[in-house]
Amino acid sequence: MLARLFIAVFGVILMTSPIAAQVEGPKPFGKTADGTAVETYTLKNKNGVIVKLITLGAAITEINVPDRAGKVANVVLGFDDVAGYQSDRNQYFGCTVGRVANRIAKGKFTLDGKEYKLAINNEPNHLHGGIKKSLDKVVWKKEYVGKIGTGVGVQFSHRSPDGEEGYPGKIDVDVWISLDDENRLEIRYAAETNMKTPVNLTNHSYFNLAGAGADTVLDHGLMLNADRYVPVDKTLIPTGKLDAVKGTIMDFTKPMRIGDRIEKLYDTGAKGYDHCYVLNKAATRLAARLRDPKSGRVMTVTTDQPGIQLYTGNFLFGQKGKDGKEYKLRSAVCLETGALPDAVNQPAFPSIILRPGETYRHACIYAFSAE
Ligand code: BGC
Q1: Which residues pair with 229 in a beta bridge?
Q2: DSSP 8-state code for residue 1
Q3: Which atom of ligand 1 is nearest to the CA of 270?
Q4: Which residues is 149 bridged to in the sheet?
Q5: Which of 42, 135, 303, 326 makes the best surface tag, with the fewest CB within 10 Å?
Q6: Nearest 5 degrees, angle CA 136-CA 138-CA 142?
Q7: 220, 179, 213: which is closest to 65 by C-alpha?
Q8: Which of helix, strand or coil describes residue 4?
């Protein structure tokens, strides 16, 4: 009885609030160098927001959003074709990163007395899951297309076998990327393993709210709901401490222009902001707020994760991207939600070890508006 009542009430709610957002696809996007077909999906909502995804790297290739005058522009870096995504111009643009996003010191960690060695792809460290079979480099399977949460989207899945890229255990990963009529782009991750193994997934979208290919993001305003950050050495490995941001150039607890104090970091290994912030507990409501004063576009980030990596595109080098646009130094900002870096070697940081029988979960919502 109660169940039927619930269905009746729930049914009415569903009927009175239909989802206008739609998903189109799959459509062919091209082929990888080894001949694997890559497909693309398009998510659209009633406000003219258009998001594009590809199966290569379960990546977001475009996020088109209106400015305060209603003019729509794509606000993330990307490429027109598979060759662009497979080239060395691609610095993880929009893709799903793992098995362990961010750096692992010297590409080594020990688990239950056994040492594991990973690729050193960012001298002298391991970065973003490895070289050939990191999650950004593989073509994911489409598992489901349709209604997801409050919107519509695509569920991608991928199985990484035991030992791939040096990591222990076989893992099964799912990523759901969906758009709703409130302009919320939601990314949800889940992973399971058959052996103890580290997992830390993220999305590596590069945002410029004035439009991808525009000038630097130094004029963007940024707020981070974080009283502490992770100080790093010159190779960007955590020192092991968590420092207070108060009174330092790292403080974004109140909205600040990204460019106001960044120059003090130009002579460091990071060449700008490339630091993980420890989110305050209330960050489940709002972790970050990014605003472009010219277009009025605003993006908020909410997450259930302990950290957010602020990376101001300090290694972009003027490469050509989508529509022939040039992506110059510091012309985009990444806000990557996830665990703290090098957690496998940092006893004081929250553990990222996933055990058999457990499920890794992570949610991140990028929401867009204009003012
Ligand atoms: C890292 C940067 C790196 C970039 C692209 C970011 O997540 O923090 O140091 O250059 O990814 O690889």
Answers
A1: 243, 277
A2: -
A3: 9
A4: none
A5: 326
A6: 100
A7: 179
A8: helix
The kind and range of the H/E element at 51 are strand 50-54
The ligand 1 site (C-beta within 6 Å) comprises 91-92, 236, 274, 309, 311, 315, 334, 336
* Cβ neighbours for 122, distance < 8 A, ≥ 6 positions apart: 103
Q: Which amino acid is at 261?
A: R
**How many Å apart are CA 3 and CA 9, to the nearest integer?**
10
> What is the SS3 assignment for 89?
coil
Q: What is the CATH number of the domain that holds 222?
A: 2.70.98.10
Residue nearest to atom 5 of ligand 1 (CA): 91
- Tell me how many degrees the CA angle 97-151-36 measures, rounded to the nearest 5: 40
The pair of structure tokens assigned to 321 is 């991207």
Q: Is the pTM of this model over 0.85?
A: yes
Find out whether 267 and 234 touch, Cβ atoms under 8 Å.
Answer: no
Residues counted in the chain: 371
Return the best residue to mutate from 100, 134, 311 for the ligand 1 pocket (most ligand atoms within 8 A of CB).
311
Tell me which residue range forms the domain holding 136.
3-370
What whole-number distance in Å separates Cα of residue 117 and Cα of residue 58?
Answer: 26
Number of domains, the chain: 1
Q: How many angstroms separate the alpha carbon of residue 24 from the centre of ligand 1? A: 31
Task: Per-residue pLDDT tens, the chain, 371 aa: give them.
Answer: 344 444 444 444 444 568 999 999 999 999 999 999 999 999 999 999 999 999 999 999 999 999 999 999 999 999 999 999 999 999 999 999 999 999 999 999 999 999 999 999 999 999 999 999 999 999 999 999 999 999 999 999 999 999 999 999 999 999 999 999 999 999 999 999 999 999 999 999 999 999 999 999 999 999 999 999 999 999 999 999 999 999 999 999 999 999 999 999 999 999 999 999 999 986 567 999 999 999 999 999 999 999 999 999 999 999 999 999 999 999 999 999 999 999 999 999 999 999 999 999 999 999 999 99
311 C-alpha to center of ligand 1: Å? 7
